[in-house]
Write a structure and sequence with these properties.
By secondary structure, this protein is α+β, with helices and mostly antiparallel strands. The protein contains three helices and six strands; from the N terminus they run H-H-H-E-E-E-E-E-E.
């Protein structure tokens, strides 16, 4: 029986590591040059070819799964951002809707000349600039074509000189937030007179 000698401190060496994996873990490709006999003893060349094809199919399948998961994640992020923006717009619209009666009162007072030179004139300016900052704009001006999507006709005024339905007077202003109508403008509409 032969005895194994313990290595002397002078003979210490690094351990030898052999990577016999057929699929490269970094690239996912099938490695060339791996000794098939060392990996799979007793397998025929046909069996090894089948194993190579199966490994390549698995790599392709997992790459496809990873690409799909990445696309689903991107779609999810887009959907979350779109929903977040819609919720933000809905909250702003609700706050603006609750402040509109106060703004209407300030507009009526301004129309009568009651705001000029008073502290309320500054309050009205700040309120309007706050609405502008969030993208709230007014709709409904005298002389524009009547649009039932943004105007609510309160009165129809026949006029022989009118050629189409136009806004003759704005009774209560309307407002939009971006493309969303918060409140339609209540208007008096000038219509062509029937002869």
């Amino acid at each position: 029986m032969s005895e194994k000698k313990a290595p002397s401190p002078d003979e210490e060496s690094e351990p030898l590591i052999t990577d016999k994996r057929r699929i490269d873990p970094e690239t996912g490709d099938v490695r060339a040059g791996v000794d098939d006999s060392a990996v799979a003893e007793g397998l025929s060349a046909d069996d090894l070819e089948i194993l190579d094809d199966a490994a390549a199919d698995l790599v392709a399948e997992y790459r496809d799964r990873a690409a799909r998961a990445e696309a689903e994640l991107q779609n999810f992020r887009t959907r979350v951002e779109r929903d977040r923006q819609a919720n933000r717009d809905a909250v702003i619209a609700e706050v603006v809707r609750s402040l509109l009666p106060a703004l209407d009162d300030l507009d009526r007072a301004d129309g009568h000349g009651d705001l000029a030179g008073t502290p309320l004139e500054l309050v009205a300016q700040k309120l309007r600039s706050g609405f502008d900052r969030y993208g709230v704009s007014s709709v409904g001006t005298v002389g524009e074509a009547f649009d039932p999507a943004i105007h609510e006709a309160m009165v129809r005024i026949p006029n022989p000189e009118a050629t189409s339905d136009t806004v003759a007077e704005v009774i209560e202003g309307g407002y939009t937030l971006g493309d969303r109508l918060i409140r339609p403008a209540k208007v008096a509409v000038q219509v062509p007179a029937d002869e």
